[in-house]
Design a protein that fits this description.
alpha+beta, eight-stranded antiparallel beta barrel
């Protein structure tokens, strides 16, 4: 039988939706303005574009740990470094989990998609064969939950915000690199069946690694 954890942080549905909507709009506007400004400068250097497949772990914490199991998350990420220290990011991920709130514990497909801005430090190992660049990122997007083989279940989509820290490693002058990243995701959760009257703030941690290909 489904139940709602008493440790959830309850947030009114309308205010939560407006918060995440405004955050998403603000992020999209920032990315658009920065991209337009960089293009308007007519620089001779072509912005660096990179793509990477990613794999990692999604670890629910707090009340969300009572709602779903840990899972492997796989996906892809694209980055446009329109400045040596700033990049725009787009990320998609999929994870298979299980709902823990019902006796049947059905399989749960989780889809996550977001946009973000990333700030990168300069190379910490300048002069060596390895480029080492720490980064921090902020972004917004959405997460979709789909319960498998559950009669009457409907797809649920929640707004999402994230913050991230990580490290980029690459061979000097090479077209390949390795990225490791840790994220803190927060979603405006309304239940896997949409059963909550008000959305609640739920957290999970995401750890991933990816092989970077510079185009």
């Amino acid at each position: 039988m489904s139940h709602t954890s008493q440790h959830s942080t309850s947030i009114p549905s309308d205010s939560t939706s407006r918060l995440f909507l405004r955050a998403g709009i603000a992020l999209a506007v920032i990315v658009s303005i920065l991209a337009f400004a960089v293009r308007a400068q007519a620089q001779t250097n072509t912005p660096a574009i990179s793509v990477r497949p990613t794999v990692g772990a999604l670890v629910p914490v707090g009340s969300q740990h009572d709602a779903m199991t840990n899972g492997v998350i796989v996906g892809a990420q694209g980055a446009w470094a329109f400045d040596p220290n700033v990049a725009a990011l787009g990320t998609f991920g999929w994870s298979r989990s299980q709902e823990k709130q019902s006796v049947q514990q059905p399989d749960l497909d989780l889809y996550q998609y977001d946009l973000g801005l990333e700030g990168r430090l300069n190379d910490l190992t300048r002069g060596s064969a390895v480029i080492t660049r720490p980064f921090a990122a902020l972004g917004a997007g959405a997460r979709t939950y789909n319960l498998r083989n559950v009669v009457g279940a409907h797809v649920q989509t929640d707004p999402l915000l994230y913050s991230a820290l990580g490290l980029d490693l690459a061979h000097s002058g090479g077209a390949f690199g390795l990225r490791v990243e840790a994220r803190d995701n927060i979603t405006a959760f309304k239940g896997f069946h949409g059963e909550f009257g008000d959305r609640t703030a739920r957290h999970d941690l995401q750890f991933s690694a990816g092989l970077t290909f510079s185009l």
